[in-house]
């Protein structure tokens, strides 16, 4: 009997009313506990048994809460948090050319750092523990994530035409190598090769950059089939739809991450499934920019691994994965004309295990022995979280994100009941105000 054994040591024992594990069997445990040691989950089980089995150095009793894996944001542009609400309600090209790009060309690392830190604070507050980024000056986001204690995959973006950072695509690749080396020993931060899109990076440079991703063994991520308009541009420019441009050159593999995938047809979904490429669904951004509704249930039916992302705060305007969870489920039903499409469980899978696969870190997105202790807790005491027939349903349809009362990455608590442990949110508020004035002054030039 284990009862006769002396209790084992562990760093931390976390106790909660309910635990959504997201393990292979999608086990939900009532009155459970998770033992954490060395940043990893040591064991998970019913509370009485775990209390007998462990003599923890520390205890975190989250009575009245449910514990679940930290959400994984599969697509965002963190420093663009600086542009939240700066230019809303206009078509994509007008938004980019007249508002975003003129300011982006002036961005300083200090301003980017404020945007990235603000983004980290919002991710932590709304229960996200890891994210796949794409932007410029990515070491700024890497350092912000490191300071905040979040996991980040950095994507230094490039085009075939001059960007705010690089005159050519090739000029970016040395930066990618340097970023990769800079974070080689960082347990939280890794990199991805990030061409912007099939209509802004030419096919030869797409292929060259893919070789770099293979060499560094990183994900290769790209905006793809975001809207019918993008398809039309590719067809006019190259005589091919965006996915075919990649497929022809063998760029669809398990390291390929396709952001959006709104305008993928049945033939293309079959190709994505066959090649093992991943898709990240961004339902709120797709709505705000009027891009369309991605056929995600068809992708899941075909066996495609799908993650979930918010996209940047300039086109969402939140980095709150809980909002994208409910939109993904609701829009999916409308898109497929079927109330049974995009179930709560399938959508939660996307925001946890699916996005984790997109980050190239399949150990994330679940609470399971031997896996990283990246967990969040939701306070169940609010009226919108009662009654509790099904906790996965509560997480997807009822939670707003503001129920998050604890966020933990690798066993370290980043946020607990209103207290940010790694970010000075008060001084960040003052910096954000200063940054917003700077953005307005640059836009007026
Ligand atoms: Zn994007």
UniProtKB/TrEMBL annotation:
- Which enzyme type, at the first EC level? hydrolase
* EC assignment: 3.5.4.28
* Keyword annotations: Hydrolase, Membrane, Metal-binding, Transmembrane, Transmembrane helix, Zinc
Ranges that cross the membrane: 394-417
* Pfam families reported in the protein's UniProt record: Amidohydro_1 (PF01979)
InterPro entries given for it?
A: Amidohydro-rel, Metal-dep_hydrolase_composite, Metal_Hydrolase, MTA/SAH_deaminase
Question: What are this entry's molecular-function GO terms?
Answer: metal ion binding; S-adenosylhomocysteine deaminase activity
Stored Gene3D superfamilies: Metal-dependent hydrolases, Urease, subunit C, domain 1
Q: Where is the Amidohydrolase-related domain?
A: 66-413
| Protein name as catalogued | S-adenosylhomocysteine deaminase
């Amino acid at each position: 009997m284990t009862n006769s054994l002396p209790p084992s040591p562990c760093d931390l024992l976390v106790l909660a009313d309910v635990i959504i594990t997201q393990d292979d069997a999608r086990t939900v445990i009532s009155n459970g506990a998770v033992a954490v040691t060395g940043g990893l989950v040591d064991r998970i089980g019913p509370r009485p048994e775990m209390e007998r089995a462990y003599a923890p150095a520390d205890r975190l009793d989250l009575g009245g809460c449910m514990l679940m894996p930290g959400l994984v944001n599969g697509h965002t542009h963190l420093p663009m948090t600086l542009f939240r609400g700066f230019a809303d309600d206009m078509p994509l090209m007008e938004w980019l050319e007249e508002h975003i790009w003129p300011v982006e060309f002036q961005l300083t690392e200090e301003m980017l750092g404020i945007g990235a830190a603000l983004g980290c604070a919002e991710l932590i507050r709304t229960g996200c523990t890891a994210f796949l980024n794409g932007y410029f000056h990515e070491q700024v986001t890497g350092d912000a994530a490191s300071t905040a204690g979040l996991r980040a995959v950095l994507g230094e973006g490039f085009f075939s035409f001059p960007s705010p950072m690089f005159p050519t695509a090739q000029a970016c690749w040395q930066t990618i190598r340097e970023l990769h080396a800079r974070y080689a020993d960082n347990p939280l931060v890794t990199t991805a090769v990030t061409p912007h899109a099939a209509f802004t990076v030419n096919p030869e440079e797409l292929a060259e950059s893919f070789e770099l991703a293979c060499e560094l063994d990183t994900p290769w991520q790209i905006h793809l089939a975001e809207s019918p308009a993008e398809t039309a541009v590719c067809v006019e420019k190259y005589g091919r739809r965006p996915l075919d441009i990649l497929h022809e050159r063998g760029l669809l593999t398990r390291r390929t991450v396709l952001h959006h995938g709104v305008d993928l047809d049945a033939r293309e979904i079959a190709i994505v499934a066959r090649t093992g490429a991943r898709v990240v669904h961004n339902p709120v951004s797709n709505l705000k920019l009027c891009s369309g509704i991605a056929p995600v249930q068809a992708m899941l039916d075909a066996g495609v691994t799908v993650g979930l992302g918010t996209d940047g705060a300039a086109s969402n305007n939140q980095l709150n994965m809980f909002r994208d969870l409910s939109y993904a489920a609701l829009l999916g039903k409308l898109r497929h004309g079927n109330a049974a499409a995009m179930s709560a469980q399938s959508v939660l899978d996307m925001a946890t295990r699916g996005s984790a696969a997109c980050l190239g870190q399949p150990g994330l997105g679940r609470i399971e022995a031997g896996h990283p202790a990246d967990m969040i807790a939701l306070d169940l005491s609010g009226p919108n979280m009662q009654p509790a027939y099904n906790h996965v349903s509560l997480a997807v349809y009822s939670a707003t994100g503001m129920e998050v009362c604890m966020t933990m990455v690798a066993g370290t608590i980043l946020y607990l009941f209103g207290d940010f442990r790694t970010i000075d949110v008060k001084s960040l508020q003052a910096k954000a105000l200063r940054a917003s004035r700077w953005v307005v002054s640059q836009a007026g030039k």
